[in-house]
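G.,

No rush on this.
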Amino acid sequence: MNDVNRTLVRTILSLILPLGLLSGLSFGSLAFPHVALAASPPQACENPNPMRFSLIPRTDLARQMEEHRPLIQYLEKALGRKVVVIQSSSYSTVIEGLLAGSIDLASMGPASYALARNRDESITPFVTWTIQGGVFVKPGSATYNSLLIVRHDSPFRDIADLKGRSVSLTDPASTSGGVLPRAEFSAQTGVPLEEYFDRVTYSGSHDRSIDTVKKGYADAAFVASEHLDNVIRRGGIEASEVRVLWQSRPIPHDPFVYRGKLCPELRERIREIFLSDAPAIRVMLGNLKAERFAPVGDEDYIQIREILSRGGG
């Protein structure tokens, strides 16, 4: 194992192990008749009521909650139970919540899923979504890229110009904003990020990383191509204001996952709900600037798991 991989895993583990606080937020039970799923023996599986849902903080948490509201309300209707939203302060809180059994269903990044799966093989991805497309992502794509961006009016023309400068990452468990920059970019330069850049910071979300570059707080940032497109759509930045100096290999899109201890009939019903053509699902997809949900399995994220395994070997 080379020095870059050793540094990658040591950094991820040292930064994600401290837990943030989890707090519950319910969108409220809707006035629908109770539809109970067939219960299985508690020793064999779990059929939680209420069900606990969480998501990694990709962007502004309040905005994410609003985007997911149609899904939460439809899950409550279709499953006949309250769905409590667990507000997570970091990627690690979602990982640890799944492992501890305090979260049943979650939206994760590929690397945060891989980190959780490497510790509990029963955690299962079941759907992802394809993207509408924009400046940096092709329409209908099920993949995206990690981009190293700088201001267009900056003097930085290639990655060599950034040596000894400052860079913003998203989260240690973020695929595009943490893991792949430490794995792929560091492999290209031959040294860990902390040796290549003078200052490496974590912003907590892609939106904030983009903002640090726009406002000059950092010289560069590693961000997801789809999140850069979303910020452009919202008018947070113009495409002409940024320059891309590096991009990663294609990354499989973010999965929704559930705990393996959930009863099989419950897991299958959740999967059916996501893959349905219900109006609430279409609204949810529109909120995410997505085209459709698509089935996925662990095999779709094996490359990310291998990167983390190599780093840990």
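When you get to it, here's the other one too:
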Amino acid sequence: MNAERVTLETLRDLADATIRSAAERPGSVDFWRKPLLVSARADDRFSLLKKIAAHDHLLPGELLESVKSVIVFFIPFRKFLQEENSVGKFPCRNWGLAYQETNPLIGEVSIRIRSFLETAGYGSALTPATHNFDPVALRARWSHKHLGYIAGLGRFGINAQLITPSGCAGRLGSLVTEADLGDHPLVESGELCLHKQGKECLRCLTRCPVSALGVDGIDRKRCWTRLKVNITSSKGLSGLEKNTHVCGKCVVGLPCSMDPV
């Protein structure tokens, strides 16, 4: 084993380099800001997943029997993309394109980290970036958001999204590994949602075009129905991949969209 080669800073640099490389490809639009990445020991804290995410949510040890650590990362979107998507009731085309391009990018980041860890002698395992959810319950069996919450990447907002130190407008990925990386949270206490801090906000509720959000949670079926309507009925998303189920109105134009702390 080459434990001395494996540090959080090395993994963060790998994630950043992968994203910068993708942004520089011919024809690519640079949708992404510098990523955030945390690790947490795969201990009993993660048993909470079956309560706060889904009763059949996988535990880290079910993905990799010899697991020691969970890695979660967040790829925040740039300001111009957030501003474009703040307009109107339907998502802008670039929001759909960013979704299409970010899905494989999450895979690239995960695979590059996995490959690096494997050269150091540590096995790893990962899951798809999206569409790994129960189509009836509309809950993921491997929720990057809930893993990020437990690992200290962020805190949940009223919009049911994970708010990180770089906001909530972006995408998440995760993997597990045999490497013992320790706990390296970015958020250890307190809330990042203004309403949960006892301050006036709730702007995310009014931004949802179908009123799927409430102070007590999200109407998942109403939200999912809207995502399917968007790809079939929005001219802005015309011609994009059929599984481009996007909206994003509840994560843009908010105090927590970018750099809330």
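Residues 90 and 117 are 41 Å apart (CA to CA). The two ends are 38 Å apart (CA to CA).

Enjoy the weekend,
O.
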